[in-house]
Amino acid sequence: MNVTIIRFPGTNCDLDTANAVKKVLGIEPKIISCKENKIPKSDLIIIPGGFSYGDYLRSGAIAAREPIMDDLELKGNQGVYIIGICNGFQILTERKLLPGSLLKNSSLKFISKNVELKITRNDTYFTSKYQTNEIVNIPIAHHDGNFFADQDTLDSIEANNQVAFRYLNPVNGSLNNIAGLYNKNLNILGLMPHPERAVDIRTGTKDGSRVFESALNFYST
Amino acid sequence: MKAIVYIRLKTEVLDPQGQAIESALKNLGESTINNIRQGKLIEMDIEAKNIKDAEEKIEKITKSLLANTVIEEYSIEIS
Amino acid sequence: MKAIVYIRLKTEVLDPQGQAIESALKNLGESTINNIRQGKLIEMDIEAKNIKDAEEKIEKITKSLLANTVIEEYSIEIS
Amino acid sequence: MDIYESHSINKEEKELLLNYLGRDPSHTEIGIFSVMWSEHCSYKSSRHWLKKLHTKGKQVIQGPGENAGVVDIGDNQAIIFKMESHNHPSFIEPYQGAATGVGGIMRDVFTMGARPIALLNSIRFGEFTHPKTKFLLSGVVAGIGGYGNCVGIPTIAGETGFDSSYNGNNLVNAMCVGLATKDKIFYSKASGIGNPVVYVGAKTGRDGIHGATMASGEFDDESEKNRPTVQVGDPYAEKLLLEACLELMQKDAIISIQDMGAAGLTSSSVEMADKGKVGIELNLNNIPTRQQNLTAYEMMLSESQERMLMVLKPEKTEIAKEVFKKWGVDFAIVGKITETNNIVVSHNGIIEADIPIKFLTDNAPMYKRKKINKNKRNQKSQPIPSIKTKDAILKLLNSPNLCSKKWVWEQYDRTIMANTLNDAGRDGGIVRIENTEKAIAMSCDVNPRYCHADAKIGAMQAVAECWRNIISMGAKPLAITNCLNFGNPEKPEIMNDFVETIEGIRDASIVLDFPVVSGNVSLYNETNGVAIKNTPTIGGVGLIESIGVLDNFGPLNIGDSIYMIGKKGSHLSCSSLEEVCNGKSSINPPEIDLNQEKLNGTGVLELIQERIITSCHDISDGGMIVAICEMIMMDNRGAAINIVDDTKMIGELFGEDQSRYIITIPPERESIFEKKMKKLGVKYELIGCITSSQLKINDSIVISNNEIRDAYESLIPSIMNNRA
Ligand SMILES: Nc1ncnc2c1ncn2[C@@H]1O[C@H](COP(=O)(O)OP(=O)(O)O)[C@@H](O)[C@H]1O
Ligand SMILES: [Mg+2]
């Protein structure tokens, strides 16, 4: 399985994500710079967390307009699997590969803590190793994770069953407690929590591993 | 030429910053101020043949980068 | 009445946001735009007897809360 | 006011300067002298005394004098760390002041070749009720988080305190800890005549050219707004600078490297040249600038952030340039190393400054200021008002200094890098070293109440508390950094306290083998003649050789016995109880026996390493009962405590006697434990056991978990959420 991680200037979870992939899947992912023209052939592409371009203007806005994102969009449309974590999620919404937008947390403060999440469905590429309705514990660390979409968009997200994770309790003002989201085709996932920081019980929780294991599971079967 | 782009959250988008300012003012005893909303302004120098040309250019970069039209609306001023 | 407070960083204060936007535009091939600076605007409804009264009130809350006069300057518009 | 005075150069210093030069200095030269001879750069009041610190040990690779201290952690790895104050800037502009404080200390660490792995901070504000406190607290916390979170370094521990003495001077002390390869450490000593001097990082603007060092007749024509004294931090630029520097450090191109901190280009170039006993020549026309028409004076004094100066191997300049280009960071050759022993600055073809370096460094003024020992001790302790024990416990937990600081640390990214092993709210922070079994434990500590009462004892206690916190996490304490925050050193009683503080730190670090490897001094923390309480913040690091020992260590198990290590509590004067109940505290802190401290701590560490005990917490502010409450709240458990002699209850619960810990042990290991403690000669006492919920003392006092939690957690949110 080929995993590619895209690094933008200001990305800071690239190494953590690579380590998690290595630890959980035993696969050496490829980290590429957003200045490359093309994304190598990949089974899974990850846009990791961080502050791409300082998160200036709006989180993820500048990164979403990088030329490499044309190739990502193309691959996304072809069905390649893509995960955007935290800033990666913001980049994907700014690129409109996922609906809605991530506003400032309603507290207006950065929030760093472990949160409980509910797995909405386990029939996707990213969640087959979880149970539907299972509650898991994964850290968040963001300033702009307050999911917003207009009513029509929100209705269609719900109607299409595109919500991947919901916060069990409200944390940042997200509509419908949305913590993670699929595109309509279910090959693109964006999520605010950091599964790559939850792959070793010594750091508090291992509940994030299964995002990666699910992907591998799908690949090998 | 100078250009300013004013960017505001769409009315239906909640503005927690505006709300926070409003409640801070209420705490300070200021109750005659309401409906506070916070937006951005982006100023720049632009080289262009004429105002129209400049306007077009600014419109283009605003749509493609400066504003996120899912949540924001904008207006442009050139001088 | 409606009031808008425009808040800008003082000219010589570093504006990392403006810089980042400028270099993003350069990367997108837009080289005729320079000296980008980002500021804020805060809009509100205000009840006041007259414009002067409103202006005084806004000035007061701007100084005490809305603007950080150590690094920012502001202007007020009432309509 | 003449130009010297306006640059804070006093009459004697002016004479000295003129004598050295034998001519009138240029304006730029006056600027250079003023910053290099400032307290901040020259340590003129403290230099003499700092030499007395204990700085040696077999773990020490580099003590004070470099950008940061370096300790050995085996396997060709080293930990590089330092703490620095940014008090004044954060009082003027809390967000940016705190943010740039974090940025500055990070550069001190990565300039030596270390990748930062953790941040800590010690922050202090005025009374809770003071009108500025909320504003300062929220700005400082957002600024610390805003910078560290963006660069991507976890902020894992610290302390937050409140006291009226900080009403006019809040403190922001930031600490950074980095990991380096032992044989790839970079120093600031310049060498190689003719080698290029290279500037990298953000462009230079007029930031931070301080009013006090510049106001003068000829400069008044520029308007005030052109001279922002506040630097704005750009953590994004820092992240790129960090990655670019670390990448270049792999390429054997750097001879010496130094961040531009206080006094920017001036102090970095002077220090590099001074260390190498060489001269340096700068051509300011090559400095990347943000604005046009910066004068030589402005460029030399600018404190724009996110910049570094390096001396490179000439043949590697192109390689270096490529690295910085790749990361989008400015790179400019701005001068060269010379054999003159002078700093020579030219701009537009004019020599703006030409000064023998030693005049700015070794020969800078140094004062052995007058000190008077005003013995404040031995005031009678005040009677503790009669208050029900239960109310006292809840009142303490709900007091500004002892309450939960969750509101603060939830704004700091603590999990980035995915190596943080314990969550905030414990004794300090622990991060694992990637790809090893090792971990580093860290803590920052000081109790200004004790330091105010007795500078020397307070300083010893600060070192000891830090040591204890590191032990409580299962780590072997290695070394410390410090930030000595004091009032005006020209006041003899403050100078006296400063000197006693140094003696206290020295004594404690000798006995505990906990040497000082870096630090910082911040004086003149005074407003309208009111000085802050002495605040010598101590930041320590310790090593956990094998994280396996922590596997069943930490969370409380129901049924485990609770023991106290050390002697029974009784010392109530100068305690939190006194302060919280009486509104003030007496000037009589608990004594500390450093040898006892060492014995108890070493014993506890063995208990953890041999996996005999299941959890540990040190006893500090608030005494034994506060420590127990903190432990049970963390894991949502209860405790049943027995105090045999009811009449001694208050002293045992709230006494702040030193060198003590609370530990828990499964009953079946009690006998091994007791045998071990007897053999070591460590005092201990069984005080109760862990239960499923509520705190019970002698069956007569019962406090529910909700009451405890509410008291502990509600205070800061209730005040802070009440604002924009
Ligand atoms: N400014 C801060 N930054 C990070 N963590 C903090 C801060 N203030 C307090 N904490 C955390 O809160 C906990 C309690 O702090 P404190 O009472 O000072 O601990 P102790 O008395 O054990 O040294 C510790 O885990 C500490 O790291
Ligand atoms: Mg402690």
Comma- or semicolon-separated keywords:
heterotetramer; A: 221 residues; alpha/beta; Rossmann fold; nine-stranded mixed β-sheet; two-stranded antiparallel sheet; 6 helices; 11 strands; 25% helix; globular; D: 724 residues; alpha+beta; seven-stranded mixed β-sheet; 23% strand; binds adenosine-5'-diphosphate; binds magnesium ion
What's this model, at a glance?
With 79 residues, chain B is an alpha+beta fold. Chain B is built from two helices and three strands.
Structural write-up:
The complex is a heterotetramer, with one copy of chain A (221 residues), two copies of chain B (79 residues) and one copy of chain D (724 residues). Chain A is 25% helix and 25% strand. Chain A contains six helices and eleven strands. In chain A, α1 (14-25) packs across α6. Chain A is globular and about 40 Å long. Helices cover 35% and strands 37% of the residues of chain B. Chain B has a three-stranded antiparallel β-sheet with strand order 2-1-3. Chain B is elongated and about 50 Å long. The mean pLDDT of chain B is 93. In chain D, 34% of the residues lie in helices and 23% in strands. Chain D is α+β, with helices and mostly antiparallel strands and 724 residues long. Chains in contact: A-B, A-C, A-D, B-C, B-D, C-D. β2 of chain B pairs antiparallel with β2 of chain C, so a sheet runs across the interface. Bound molecules: adenosine-5'-diphosphate and magnesium ion (MG). Residues 121, 123, 155, 157-160, 405, 408-409, 424-428, 443, 445, 469, 620-621 of chain D line the site of adenosine-5'-diphosphate (ADP).
Present the secondary structure layout:
The complex is a heterotetramer, with 1 copy of chain A (221 residues), 2 copies of chain B (79 residues) and 1 copy of chain D (724 residues).
Chain A: E1 3-7, H1 14-25, E2 30-33, E3 44-47, H2 61-64, H3 68-78, E4 81-85, H4 87-94, E5 101-103, E6 111-119, E7 135-142, E8 146-148, H5 151-159, E9 163-167, E10 178-182, E11 188-191, H6 209-220
Helix pairs in contact in A: 1-6
Chain B: E1 2-9, H1 16-27, E2 33-46, H2 51-66, E3 72-78
Antiparallel strand pairs in B: 1-2, 1-3
Chain D: H1 11-21, H2 27-36, H3 39-42, H4 47-50, E1 60-62, E2 69-72, E3 77-85, H5 87-92, H6 94-110, E4 115-125, H7 133-151, E5 155-162, E6 171-181, E7 196-201, H8 235-248, E8 254-259, H9 264-276, E9 279-283, H10 296-301, E10 307-312, H11 317-326, E11 331-338, E12 342-347, E13 350-356, H12 357-360, H13 389-397, H14 406-409, E14 429-432, E15 439-445, H15 448-453, H16 455-472, E16 476-485, H17 492-511, E17 516-522, E18 526-527, E19 530-531, E20 535-544, E21 561-565, H18 576-582, H19 594-609, E22 615-618, H20 623-635, E23 638-641, H21 649-654, E24 661-665, H22 670-680, E25 684-691, E26 695-697, E27 701-703, H23 705-720
